[in-house]
Amino acid sequence: MDSYLTRNFDRPDAKTLAGYEKLGGFRTARKALGMKPEDVVAQVKAANLRGRGGAGFPAGVKWGFLPDNGKPRYLVVNADEGEPGTFKDRQLMERDPYQLLEGILITCHAIKAKVAYIYVRGELVHAARFLEECIEEMRFKHYLGKRCMGMPMELDVFVHRGAGAYICGEETALLNSLEGKRGEPRLKPPFPAVEGAFADPTIVNNVESIANIPHILEHGGEWFAKLGVEGDGGTRIFGVSGHVRKPGLYERPVGYNLRTLLFEDCGGIRGGNQLKAVIPGGSSTPVLLPSEIDIPLSIEGLQGAGSMVGSAAIIVMDETVCTVRAMWRLSRFYHHESCGQCTPCRDGCGWIEKIMERIEFGKGVPEDLETLEKTAHGLSGTTICPLADACAMPTLGFLGKFRKEFEEHIEKKECPYGNAFVPPWEVD
Amino acid sequence: MSWKPTPQTEDKLTKLLGAYPDRKAACIPALFLAQDELGWVPDDAIAWVSEKLGMAKSMVEGVATFYTMFNMEKIGKHHLELCTNISCSLCGAEQVLEALEKELGIKAGETTPDGLFTLHEVECLATCGMGPAMQVHDRIFEGITLEKVPEIIKELKGEG
Ligand SMILES: Cc1cc2nc3c(=O)[nH]c(=O)nc-3n(C[C@H](O)[C@H](O)[C@H](O)COP(=O)(O)O)c2cc1C
Ligand code: SF4
Ligand code: FES
């Protein structure tokens, strides 16, 4: 069984509680709720489930950081999916909501939380509304409430919508936003596990991380660990966008080959064009060249290639793409989304955007490349949260691997590719 | 205060408060409730939220202005939000933006004189594999092409 997370995606019957149960749903929750919380945590630890939100922290280890201080505990599910290229969590919520909710039930039992919040990105109106309906149904059937599923466990789940700010995906910004504040990241430590939502111990996990939990408990941590590679278990939902023939979501075991995914599963490059560049893990991860994609899609595999698996969002660019334009577009995003608390980020992302724009439109000067490098280096590691690095890394990546293209723009005083990306209708 | 929320809105807010240990946490949902009724967040809405949640008006305003989904000014009846981030742009969003601007006779960020349409460029809508993507309130249009642009506008106009 190589895919389990997406197994219900084409089964509309899974979208009702009764239908989901017919397909075997909530059987595992019933079993797990009868286990000791420590034993559930032990299974998740053994599974080597690495966080699917981008940072890849082992979930079981994080759960172990909760202090035993008698304070209320919270689970906060990060459904703020906003990293450009990433589109898996929306589908997990819209196409199999009860899988996520079953995961929440089991997780809250394991970490002894009585309240869970699902922080859903404001734009995902449908997902939020649908989850609310599902939660209502679970309350009605006493799967949530004072005695969940007739077991001595109390839990309620609430959907909290964001309102349009990418930075709220960062876990401490998300917590501020949940508390009704501006979504500005907090200085760490204290980490959320110690002082999170409403200053109480809180576990923040990504939607896909939590959706994995029922499967880990159903088949055991060891099974899950074996699906992937050493230290990085399970499958991942890879979101492929851009210039492949068949973009979409592909659930594959951790360690799956990137070239195989693009050239076999996704049908290769549109119009038989040549591949030029691949962003392997969401917009903030360093770009790869075609010669660098014969690698396993795992945390270590991508580290080895000088990039990151991040949110497993793979953005593919064919030979028609101007990499300067691509980087300009990304820098616009990061500049727009900087929360403005740290000067290097607020100003630095702005400078990078300005320089990128100037180069793309033929107004760049040779010194710009050095300024870009300096600015990007100045951003790294000097700020409250990693958004600044998320802008710096792709900048240095594109500049390092496509320097010739940057220089060409400056020399010719114009973009050699025309001032737009080539749309699909001009290719196929 | 000239604007008063409907009793239903008041009820919804009361229900919301039960979800949080601290009523201030209901700030974003409360602002949404006001905006759902009014289409935007005028001073009256800020005042209502501040009174209900026991927060200073400046705090509520600070929150409202932080998040892009709160309209601090009146906007058109149909709010077109086209994603022009990387995956969508690679698949034609730049050309779709131009076509929308031409069809509506406005630039991104503007509202048509008849008050029907406001057009905005937005960041990734988590639909990257099916782009170009555009959100219009709670609807999402995927795989937009140049031909689809006038059709979408016509359809929305037909809804009044
Ligand atoms: C700028 C920024 C944006 C982020 N956006 C998201 C996001 O949209 N979804 C998400 O799950 N994690 C996001 N993260 C990662 C979270 O901070 C956090 O690591 C994650 O939610 C933990 O869950 P996991 O361990 O299950 O991955 C973001 C981090 C940063 C720095
Ligand atoms: S690095 Fe940027 S986004 Fe993060 S806290 Fe600082 S200013 Fe805000
Ligand atoms: S880039 Fe447009 S939806 Fe993600």
What key attributes describe this structure?
heterodimer; A: 428 residues; alpha/beta; Rossmann fold; Ubiquitin-like (UB roll); de novo design (two linked rop proteins); 3 domains; four-stranded parallel β-sheet; four-stranded mixed β-sheet; 8 strands; 11% strand; B: 160 residues; alpha+beta; Arc Repressor Mutant, subunit A; Glutaredoxin; 2 domains; binds flavin mononucleotide; binds iron/sulfur cluster; binds FE2/S2 (inorganic) cluster
Structural class of chain B: alpha+beta
CATH class of the largest domain in chain A: Alpha Beta
What is the 3D form of chain A?
A: globular
Q: Uncertain runs of chain B with pLDDT below 50, 5 residues or more?
A: none
Low-confidence stretches of chain A: none
The CATH topology of the largest domain in chain A is Rossmann fold
Assign the CATH class of the largest domain in chain B: Alpha Beta
Q: Average pLDDT across residues of chain B?
A: 96
**The CATH architecture of the largest domain in chain A:** 3-Layer(aba) Sandwich
Helix content of chain B: 40-55%
Note the beta-strand portion of chain B.
Answer: 5-15%
Largest sheet of chain B: 4 strands, mixed
Strand order of the largest sheet of chain B: 2-1-3-4
The tally of beta strands of chain A, per DSSP, is 8
Order of helices and strands of chain A: HHHHEHHEHEHEHHEEHEHEHHHHH
Query: Care to count the β-strands of chain B?
Result: 4
Percent helix of chain A, as a range, is 40-55%
Report what the structure shows.
The complex is a heterodimer of chains A (428) and B (160). Chain A has 428 residues and is α/β, with parallel strands linked by helices. Chain A folds into three domains: 12-226, 3-Layer(aba) Sandwich (Rossmann fold), CATH 3.40.50; 235-316, Ubiquitin-like (UB roll), CATH 3.10.20; 323-426, Up-down Bundle (de novo design (two linked rop proteins)). Helices cover 42% and strands 11% of the residues of chain A. Chain A contains 17 helices and eight strands. Chain A has helices at residues 17-22, 27-33, 37-47, 59-63, 89-95, 97-111, 125-140, 171-178, 207-219, 221-227, 258-265, 299-304, 323-337, 343-360, 367-379, 387-401, 403-412, and strands at 74-79, 115-120, 156-161, 202-206, 235-242, 248-253, 275-279, 313-318. In chain A, the strands form two sheets. A four-stranded parallel beta sheet of chain A has the order 3-2-1-4, with helices on both faces. In chain A, helix 7 links the parallel strand 2 (115-120) and strand 3. In chain A, helix 2 (27-33) packs across helix 9 (207-219), helix 6 (97-111) crosses helix 9 (207-219) and helix 14 (343-360) packs parallel to helix 16 (387-401). Chain B is an alpha+beta fold and 160 residues long. Chain B folds into two domains: 7-66, NADH-quinone oxidoreductase subunit E (Arc Repressor Mutant, subunit A, Orthogonal Bundle), CATH 1.10.10.1590; 78-156, Glutaredoxin (3-Layer(aba) Sandwich). Helices cover 45% and strands 11% of the residues of chain B. Chain B has seven helices and four strands; from the N terminus they run ααααβααβββα. Chain B has a four-stranded mixed beta sheet, with helices on one face. In chain B, a hairpin with a 2-residue loop joins strand 3 (134-136) and strand 4 (139-141). Chain B starts with 6 loop residues before the first helix and ends with a helix. Chains A and B meet through helix 7, strand 3, strand 5, strand 8 and helix 13 of A and helix 2, helix 4 and helix 5 of B. Flavin mononucleotide binds at residues 51-55, 57, 59, 78, 80-83, 167, 169-171, 204-206, 209, 385-387, 390 of chain A.
